[in-house]
Records
---
Amino acid sequence: MATAVKKRPRISSAAGRRPSRKEVLERKKAIDELIRKAIAVKDHLVQFPAFHKFQGNGLSVYLESGHGDQLTLPVNMEEPYGPEWPSEEKVKRQEMVAPEARYIFIKQYSNGFTTECSMNQDAGVEHMHTPCNEGHLVGFVHYRFVLEEELPVVYVYELQMEPSAQGKGLGKFLMQLIEQIACKNQMGAVMLTVQKANTQAMAFYTKLRYVISSTSPSRVDPQIGLEKSYEILCKTFDCEAKSKLEDGDEEL
Ligand SMILES: CC(C)(COP(=O)(O)OP(=O)(O)OC[C@H]1O[C@@H](n2cnc3c(N)ncnc32)[C@H](O)[C@@H]1OP(=O)(O)O)[C@@H](O)C(=O)NCCC(=O)NCCS
């Protein structure tokens, strides 16, 4: 999907000179401002009408922005965490309701659209994902705008589809939306953490062309990587992010 990627402020590395303290501070300020602006957007989904609903593969669903307090903890998370789950569970619950946590929910129409709703589909963005009956949740993504290696990125904290909705293109659809949100807000990459034991998720992200980040323990130090149960994956959108998050260059 083509996205117009705006240029992020960066320091000129002409002649390979080190940036001055003033330049470093200005850049930091500009990046903080990008994150502040992205967080200030109330509903990112509104800007992407093509992602307000998904029909196909026997599914008819709509997307909706929301908060983590609307969720109960997904039931199928324990398995990939193994013995680390009891401590992880507490962390996950705190993460879910943190104010900086952004959510997009996928809900299934209980009775499909009524005629009135069908007629409203062209009436404007605010009506496009209005359900006739409150649908039931079949999946969600939890994401945040954060700094990684001093770069602004979208970090996907959680992506979950209920078993009956898996393998129907919804996970890919949500990740495409997240990538669009990242680009629109001038973030350098989408990043996420995945448990090594979750081979299904690993295969999914690999299919979506995510790669193991140079910040992942296995790449920072293979020995430490062996002791860790997770990998950090990324998809980058510009040279600077590619260099720092994929290639692991210290300096540009
Ligand atoms: C992992 C998960 C989010 C994927 O979402 P999904 O809706 O089932 O995946 P999709 O149907 O959108 O698949 C997108 C692509 O990935 C591929 N894919 C998905 N799962 C795969 C697997 N286990 N092995 C190989 N390819 C896979 C699909 O074939 C598809 O390829 P295509 O684009 O060529 O058609 C979903 O299965 C899920 O919620 N799993 C349980 C929770 C979880 O593990 N979340 C991730 C935590 S990091």
---
Amino acid sequence: MSLFTSPPVKRAMRLVVTALDRRIKRIAGVENAELTRRLEQAQRQLDKATVNNYAVELLLGRSGRGSHRTPTRTQVGGLAGEVREATGVDAAERHVHLAYRTLVVLEALGSGRVAGGTMNVLGKLSAIPLLKPPNGDVLEIGTLHGLFAAGLVRQLVSAGYAPHLTIVDPLAEVQLQPGHVLGADPSGTPISENVVRANLGLSGLPEARIRLRRGFSDDSEVRAAVSDREYGVVVIDGDHSEEGVRKDLEWAETLVASGGVVVLDDYTDASWPGVEAALEKHLEGSTRFTLVGRVATSGFLRAD
Ligand SMILES: C[S@@+](CC[C@H](N)C(=O)[O-])C[C@H]1O[C@@H](n2cnc3c(N)ncnc32)[C@H](O)[C@@H]1O
């Protein structure tokens, strides 16, 4: 009989093994509890971060407007460079930041949306006042829900202007674009006088300084009704076809004050090639306009 098979040694070994087994289980249990605690803590932190991101996504995400409002630092810095170049204003970046707040606040409070990508909207909101138009009379051709116009008015007020706003838009329930069938708006909000007026109310502009003319910009009655002044700013953002833009540019020649600013929205936007084509041809002819810059996909013209 070997030493390890003798009953007293076997008993003693069983006792040792049982004691070791208990000890291992205790240590493993402690470590397991620690691991579980850390895992639960990480899960709580992840939940918190996810909730925060989700809330930011709800506030600034694409849903309900088609474009997100979460630009990167690099994008904003690049845009500020374009605004600086177009306007000659060194502090352009600060103005882009202020424009961003205007955009976010208006879309949060307003009905519908501002059309277009964030960079293009910020470019227009910041560059127009920095180009120092000669007066605060603004004509917007094509308004959708009127929220961009409300933002532009706020930007001009912040720059010391007392704006008077004229808008021309057919106010058809959905956006009209010749040659395109545009479906329901991503916001689900119809285009209507009620919506546009409610949104313009957010600009803080008194009703007496707002003129909303329903119709198409090439309609002679519409033109006659709003051609009573020399505008400091004309925003062309209605019919995006080459023919439509050509007519609006020709009309703008007769409307803009000396030194006035004409903004051609979606110029260089690949989705709307007619806009760039119309401007190129227009600038080849006899014109008061000089292209002073491009910011994102908007062209900025100055009238003699
Ligand atoms: C791109 S949306 C305007 C977006 C708005 N300016 C903004 O920044 O949020 C174009 C608008 O112009 C309107 N429109 C189309 N053809 C027009 C025309 N000939 N004259 C005036 N508005 C027109 C459309 O129905 C639509 O409401």
---
Amino acid sequence: MSAPEVRLRPVTENDLVMFRRFATEPGLIGLDWAGFRDAQAPARRFATDGYLGVDDSRIIVEADGTAAGLMSWSARVAGVSRYWEMGIALLPDWRGRGIGWRAQAMLCDYLFTHTPVERIQAVTHAENIAEQRSLEKAGFRLEGVLRSVEFLAGQWRDGWMYSRLRSDPRPPNP
Ligand SMILES: CC(C)(COP(=O)(O)OP(=O)(O)OC[C@H]1O[C@@H](n2cnc3c(N)ncnc32)[C@H](O)[C@@H]1OP(=O)(O)O)[C@@H](O)C(=O)NCCC(=O)NCCS
């Protein structure tokens, strides 16, 4: 079976249902479930800037024309410099079909084209093999382990820090 056609596009009002689901359905997001979130926050944020902010944005991952999940990028600051941290969550039906790595490679292309950053980072966990493989296929490299950086599911967990630099090789045919 060939991989679905992947496209990134801005959030529309119809996508807010999916945002609310990720905020209120335990476990839908996967290993990163951190408890219930304000279900009205997505509508407020969408009304403010359509989820495209200067420091923090969300975008929809479409697969074969259907909203399959969302991605985020937010600014990190080091002295006078800025770089991005990105994240992704696909709905369960769309996982494991070659969408995640393609979408992450496409977002890198987008951010390196439209912003002058040199570095994009992404953090995952030891248990999240799918995200580790997906990041590696999208051209990211593991930098190291942030010890006990995040409280999730009753315990402090290590973060596996990945990055892709503008000068790193671009993966073939994302
Ligand atoms: C993590 C996630 C984005 C990965 O995207 P995906 O579309 O499922 O992954 P892909 O199909 O692009 O797979 C990329 C690679 O990972 C491998 N992979 C995918 N799912 C896997 C799994 N459950 N276990 C082991 N390997 C897996 C694939 O085989 C592929 O490698 P290959 O080409 O060498 O075979 C997606 O599963 C997801 O949204 N999960 C829930 C939310 C989440 O965990 N987000 C990341 C938070 S840090």
---
Amino acid sequence: MEPSPTFDLGRFNPASPELRANPYPIYHLLRQAMPVCPTPVGAWLVSRYADGESILADKRFATIDLNRLGQAGQLPETPSLAAARAAMGRTMLFMDPPRHGRIRSLVSKAFSPRMVESLRPRIRQIAEDLLNTLEEENEADLIRDFAYPLPVIVIAEMLGVPPEDRALFRRWTIDLARLIDFVQSTEAVDRAMKAMEETAEYLHTLAWERRQNPQDDLLSALIAAEERGDRLTEDEMLANVVLLLGAGHETTANLIGNGMLALMKHRDQMERLRREPHLLPGAIEECLRYDSPVQATGRRALENVAIAGIEIPRDSHVIILIGACNRDPDRFPDPDRFDITRDRNEHLAFGGGIHYCLGANLARAEAQIAVDSLAHRFPKLDLACDAIEYRDMFNLRGLKALPVRLA
Ligand code: HEM
């Protein structure tokens, strides 16, 4: 009889450079040994696709308990930590029904497939403008020069943030993103809360202007909802606008960066994509699956629930390792192979259930346009370095830089 594999949980350390550089071999070992794995901090790691998919859709699970935020990193209780809990609790991401549905429905119209389709020409224009600035260059950093600015310009325009203020959001969203990562320190929480205060103050002033002079933008629409008494307080409105800015920026930039890296490492597929543009939507799905920009999400069991024969006690947290589920060989044949023509590619990169990513249509459109514009503008595009480094985050997986030769 085959001995059952064992797994040293010490290898699953979100702060370790080994895991950040390449989590996938570690996920495979974890999934084989303990697909539902208890951790010393009381949360359970889930690494099989079928289990992840069913938990996300299961009403016996709710959002995580924000009072436990920081406990895994054993952070001391500070005013910033308390403020972070309160602010996150006002976003739809950390709300349960019925409050969740009310807030989500106020925002969701702006992200419907029809609205996103109507934005495509403008997204194309923004992508082309950014690439125009690189036309004379031989080399570029695709993260700094393209993948970051594109989504921030799109979401800032949707909200109605004036162009001259966009640069502010880059710093704010980078600091804010630390709140939904595993690796936390008091210093990171303090920085995130400073960014949160500055963003909220900025948006408060912008909202005041929009109240006097409404425009055809998302901020004005949310203010109208608040003023109609649609049960959206100003604090909730501001918290959810901050969520849209953060969620719409970092994640999409990482999809463009991780996706372009995979395509440049698989030149045959990049060439095929140039020749057969109808493969573009499938190629972006494969980028989302292969190197998912969000690696994990959490839920809390409202009752005792058996997952794969293992009893998860009521009130426990489960961490659904999206990146591991998306490489599960029981769901995706030959899961470590990057294949832009893969069929039945229903990955979990956008989560699932009631919190399924609100911006999924927009993120897909932006990534499709970004990859298409790059591939056609620079036919000789290639990596300009041997070693690639990922940022020091586990959950939001993205590159520090992506140096390329353009010509
Ligand atoms: C590649 C890009 C993106 C990825 C991989 C991504 C991923 C995710 C995931 C995994 C969740 C679900 C979290 C959970 O179930 O716990 C989520 C939720 C969410 N995302 Fe995205 N996202 C992306 C882009 C965007 C964009 C562009 C926006 C909007 C501008 C956005 C807005 C949201 C919002 C508002 C939620 C919360 C939905 C809710 O709680 O009902 N995301 N996203």
